[in-house]
């Protein structure tokens, strides 16, 4: 529950299901897989100050403006973000605290781990609350006689970082005028170059640690070590974040796929100026903890992290080596389809392009809520169905997927069909229970969005 009473207004869109989970603090719960994952990552950044208690309700300013998000950035949309009211929201990323932590100026390196909130797809790897860890390291140019002396120090620090035998693909230049620019006004090429190198080597080291642990757990479970077949491999991909430049994403080759694990870059200098530490230069990253924990422990469904079931919780022990999660009885799935005609007045439906857990509120994933025509039903966005499904079925909904979409050639009306898969983690849902949930969701689509069921 929210710790205080906040005024609501026309921006308010936080549902009771989210409020009920607010404050669970899974990332610090002893022996919880998210806490074990957090500690494992923290252990690779010795000397960093770890902030694990920053409250999840922040201002729009902290979450977006302080980081240099433009006024029209799609991440601000009510389709993607949970607003408590027009000025206050549930943080969408741990970067919301960057400026405050830089301002407090109590350490050169820090991590921030916390719960973050995003309206998003319903499937086994997305949940509207997840956890991120932010990490940053800066050097203070005013500690050195010359800028070159600061570069020399970063170089020395770089050389002291642990070496690894990871295969690293990094085909792009350290920065690129159009695709991934150097902050020319603020950094010399040498500064950006060495900060980028230090950042990449530090994160590669973290990834080696995580994936070596994951691989050991696999081998111990008799599920075959990946490293025995091919060496661990990562690649750096150019990226964009409003608060870093140049920016990258790190992808890891894991069990036959490139997996995006984090976003990072050279910290935007105007941000550091706003934080009253104009002489500091450095790097930052953000990583999604669920995704890492899922592959470390082999946890197949993101809803499990929220389980209070001893069959889940008793499997994790922070004093012991990582062990693969043993699935307990899986209850059968109950898929149901809902097809409907959209009202004519509905704007084009925007589908989710699920952003990776670590990436910024997806630039492609949403659009501003269209004001509804006078008297007409509010405009339907795919996330509205996700939200109705979660609010009605809670954790008994596993997946919501668009399976058909067509426009009638004569009337021009658009029809959508979604498949909603119900499955409880705790019991078998009866036909009647699944039908009742489905009926309530269908009726809410009618009453809230004026759709016509087919
Ligand atoms: N804040 C970004 C996100 O949520 C991740 C990030 C953090 C990127 C720090 C760069 C530096 O997705």
From TrEMBL:
UniProt KW Ligase keyword: yes
Boundaries of every Aminoacyl-transfer RNA synthetases class-II family profile domain copy: 114-321
Pfam families: FDX-ACB, tRNA-synt_2d
Enzyme class: ligase
EC number: 6.1.1.20
A GO biological-process term: phenylalanyl-tRNA aminoacylation
Domain (FDX-ACB) ranges: 329-454
Annotated Gene Ontology cellular component terms: mitochondrial matrix
Cell location: Mitochondrion matrix
Chain positions covered by the region annotation Disordered: 352-374
NCBIfam families in alphabetical order: pheS_mito
Role played: Is responsible for the charging of tRNA(Phe) with phenylalanine in mitochondrial translation.
Family that this chain belongs to: Belongs to the class-II aminoacyl-tRNA synthetase family.
Protein's name in the database: Phenylalanine--tRNA ligase, mitochondrial
Originating species: Oleoguttula mirabilis
């Amino acid at each position: 529950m929210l710790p205080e009473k906040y005024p609501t207004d026309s921006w308010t869109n936080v549902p009771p299901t989210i409020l009920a989970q607010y404050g669970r603090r899974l990332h610090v719960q002893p022996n919880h897989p998210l806490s074990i994952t957090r500690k494992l990552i923290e252990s690779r950044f010795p000397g960093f100050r770890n902030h694990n208690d920053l409250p999840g309700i922040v201002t729009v300013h902290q979450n977006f403006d302080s980081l240099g998000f433009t006024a029209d950035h799609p991440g601000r949309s009510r389709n993607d973000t949970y607003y408590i009211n027009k000025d206050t929201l549930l943080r969408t990323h741990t970067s919301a605290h960057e400026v405050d932590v830089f301002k407090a100026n109590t350490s050169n390196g820090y991590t921030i781990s916390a719960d973050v909130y995003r309206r998003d797809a319903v499937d086994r790897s997305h949940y509207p609350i997840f956890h991120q860890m932010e990490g940053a390291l800066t050097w203070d140019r005013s500690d050195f006689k010359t800028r070159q002396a600061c570069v020399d120090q970063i170089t020395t620090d770089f050389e002291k970082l642990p070496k690894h035998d990871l295969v690293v693909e990094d085909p792009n230049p350290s920065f690129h005028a159009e695709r991934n620019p150097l902050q020319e006004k603020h950094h010399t090429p040498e500064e950006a170059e060495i900060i980028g190198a230090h950042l990449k080597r530090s994160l590669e080291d973290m990834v080696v640690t995580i994936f070596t642990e994951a691989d050991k757990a696999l081998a111990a479970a008799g599920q075959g070590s990946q490293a025995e077949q091919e060496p661990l491999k990562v690649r750096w991909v150019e990226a964009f974040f409003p608060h870093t430049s140049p920016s990258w994403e790190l992808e890891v080759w894991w069990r036959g796929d490139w997996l995006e694990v984090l976003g990072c870059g050279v910290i935007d200098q105007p941000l550091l100026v706003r934080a009253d530490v104009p002489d500091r230069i450095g790097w930052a990253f953000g990583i999604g903890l669920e995704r890492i924990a899922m592959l470390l422990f082999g946890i197949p469904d993101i809803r499990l992290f929220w389980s209070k079931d001893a069959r889940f919780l008793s499997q994790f022990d922070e004093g012991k080596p990582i062990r693969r999660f043993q699935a307990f009885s899986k209850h059968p799935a109950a898929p149901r389809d809902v097809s409907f005609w959209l009202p004519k007045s509905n704007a084009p439906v925007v589908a989710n392009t699920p952003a990776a857990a670590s990436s910024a509120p997806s630039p492609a994933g949403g659009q501003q809520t269209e004001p509804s025509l006078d008297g007409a039903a509010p405009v339907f966005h795919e996330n509205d169905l996700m939200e109705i499904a979660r609010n009605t079925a809670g954790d008994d909904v596993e997946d919501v997927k668009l399976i058909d979409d067509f426009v009638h050639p004569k009337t021009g009306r658009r029809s959508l069909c979604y498949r909603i898969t119900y499955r409880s983690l705790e019991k078998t849902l009866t036909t009647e229970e699944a039908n009742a949930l489905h009926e309530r969701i269908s009726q809410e689509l009618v009453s809230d969005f004026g759709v016509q069921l087919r």
